[in-house]
Design brief:
It is a single chain. The strands form three sheets. The chain has a seven-stranded mixed β-sheet. Strands 5, 6, 7, 8 and 9 form a five-stranded antiparallel β-sheet that branches. Strands 1-2-3 form a three-stranded antiparallel β-sheet. By secondary structure, the chain is of the alpha+beta class. Strand 5 and strand 6 form a beta hairpin. 19% of the residues lie in helices and 30% in strands. 36% of the residues are buried.
Amino acid sequence: MAGVWRSSGVRWGEDGPGLVWVGDRGERRVSRIAFGGEAGFRVVGERRCVGARGNPCPGDVAVARGSAQARCGECARLDRVHSVAADGVPDDPRVYRVYLAWFGPGLVKVGITAEEREGARLREQGAVCFSWLGRGPLMAARRCEELLRAALGVPDRVSYEQKRVVRASLPGTGERGDEIRDMHGRAVALGGWPESLEPLPCRVVDHGRLFGLDGLGPAYGVVRELVPDGVVGGRVLAAAGPDLHLESGGRHLVLDTRLMSGWGLGAAPAGGGITVPVRALRPPGVQDQLF
């Protein structure tokens, strides 16, 4: 399929997002995502497993269209074997940092990331703002996570549906870090911290301007899945984590770019709009509707 590229998702640098593409011969390029600019593609062929840990899928297996992960069962298992998130490498010698991330009012979570990655993990998750909490060995960071979940009820996950719903009603920059500062103070006051974990001061980093969230209105819907010959195109309003907020045909829609992995993607026809299935954006627990 000459001229067809495959997406490797959004790459977040300190200066903003870009879409990573892999060509037919393994060549790679990055398309910078410019707010106010146009973005679009046409879906080619069927969705195939992307493999694991840089290795192609041995069976080139077809995978589900609507999943955020384009891996077959075997490749997903191999990928998890070496996953820090799944505690697949408990003897990892790197230094880790514990963080508190805020996605909207009442949506604070605790997590960990390798110190060498700096704030990349927070940008990838779409954290509107965050602060470091501590640094130390992997298992000490894990124990700190568990302590905050048990003692303060801080979750380690916030669903993307929750994140999308609140992005259009965020308070101002001055207020956004209040919950993090409060939770940071409560966390460092807890007893039972691992001795090898060094507490870090609360310094809130805000991503609102980087994500383009100022003045963002409510989204009308979310792309449910990509389909062969489907088209996605529109003006970029904002980006947060893997989500692109697009204006297309007068509607504000969200594209989770993880849905793009595993597909062949070609150039979108002029004025193509969005011809793939879309569902209404609803708060978690409310029945979705198709349109």
